[in-house]
């Protein structure tokens, strides 16, 4: 709620300051300059990426602002419970839990465990699902990054067009100054769209994808432990240890104080890639 209020206040403040700075220009002219930059950037973007990617981008951005932060601890408890059921009662009891699993990635992995797939096969299948999902999300980030680069370029093109028009009608110096000021508006709008629209959306989506990557990584590691019939408490402890490091709480229960500085942080992408190379 507080983040939404801060965002709303920031938008209103930005609009108010923009109106005060550009108060001498007409609303129609501001609208034309803004539409020129935004329309040009989107047009080139549509030519660069498939339309389906934009539909996926819009849906994902709605989820980014609508979906609450993932509950990692609840996920670890769910994985611990599934590991206990599989270890104590077997695949048939685990199959009854499928309807209660909301996460599609976790559900598919449990289905593979129930069907009796080898842990190595489960890892390969789920790793491919993981990489395809993350790569699709990264392609959406590249769309926003491209639009961020295009907006200032289109604004500069609009400025050049305006200056050509001014130089072609050199008469009254006052009108020339007014024309130059109008021409520079497209550059201003290009910078505004790039830094106040596309850049924040790109950073927000990047953080969302990173959060999902960590979530899927926890599920992938938990599925391997479930498939190998490992102790549920050991499974929960290992996943919670990763969560503590991910959340920034450094607790080294298994290390002496002299070795704290030698601990190396890792990224889920890097660990999955390294494990695949070793295999």
How would you describe the overall organization of this protein?
- It is a single chain.
- The protein is mainly alpha-helical and 279 residues long.
- Helix content is 80%, strand content 0%.
- The chain is built from ten helices and no strands.
- Helix 2 crosses helix 7 and helix 3 (51-66) packs across helix 7 (119-167).
- It is elongated.
- The two termini are 46 Å apart.
Short description, anyone?
The protein has 279 residues and is mainly α.
Task: Please name the defining characteristics of this protein.
279 residues, mainly alpha, 10 helices, 80% helix, elongated
Topology order in helix (H) and strand (E) letters: HHHHHHHHHH
- Indicate the mean pLDDT: 80
Shape: elongated
User: Given the helix and strand composition, which structural class is it?
Assistant: mainly alpha
Topology:
Blueprint: H1 2-21, H2 27-48, H3 51-66, H4 72-89, H5 91-95, H6 104-114, H7 119-167, H8 173-227, H9 232-246, H10 268-278
Helix pairs in contact: 2-7, 2-8, 3-7, 4-8, 4-9, 6-7, 6-8, 7-8, 8-9
């Amino acid at each position: 709620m507080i983040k939404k209020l801060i965002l709303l206040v920031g938008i209103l403040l930005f609009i108010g300051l923009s109106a005060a700075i550009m108060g001498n220009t007409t609303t129609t002219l501001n609208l034309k300059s803004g539409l020129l930059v935004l329309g040009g950037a989107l047009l080139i973007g549509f030519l660069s990426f498939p339309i389906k990617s934009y539909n996926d981008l819009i849906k994902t951005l709605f989820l980014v602002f609508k979906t609450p932060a993932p509950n990692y601890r609840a996920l670890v408890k769910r994985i611990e419970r599934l590991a206990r059921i599989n270890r104590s009662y077997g695949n048939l009891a685990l199959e009854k839990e499928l309807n209660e699993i909301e996460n599609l990635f976790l559900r598919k992995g449990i289905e593979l465990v129930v069907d009796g797939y080898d842990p190595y096969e489960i890892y390969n299948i789920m790793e491919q699902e993981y990489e395809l999902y993350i790569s699709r999300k990264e392609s959406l980030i590249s769309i926003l990054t491209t639009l961020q680069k295009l907006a200032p370029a289109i604004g500069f093109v609009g400025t050049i067009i305006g200056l050509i028009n001014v130089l072609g009608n050199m008469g009254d110096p006052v009108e020339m100054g007014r024309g130059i000021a109008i021409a520079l508006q497209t550059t201003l709008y290009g910078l505004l769209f790039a830094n106040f629209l596309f850049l924040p959306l790109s950073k927000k989506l990047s953080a969302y994808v990173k959060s999902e990557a960590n979530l899927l990584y926890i599920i992938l590691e938990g599925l391997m432990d479930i498939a190998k019939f490992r102790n549920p408490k050991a499974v929960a402890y290992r996943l919670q240890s990763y969560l503590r490091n991910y959340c920034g709480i450094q607790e080294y229960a298994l290390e002496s104080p002299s070795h704290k500085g030698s601990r190396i942080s890792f990224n889920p992408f890097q660990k999955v890639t390294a494990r695949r190379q070793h295999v």
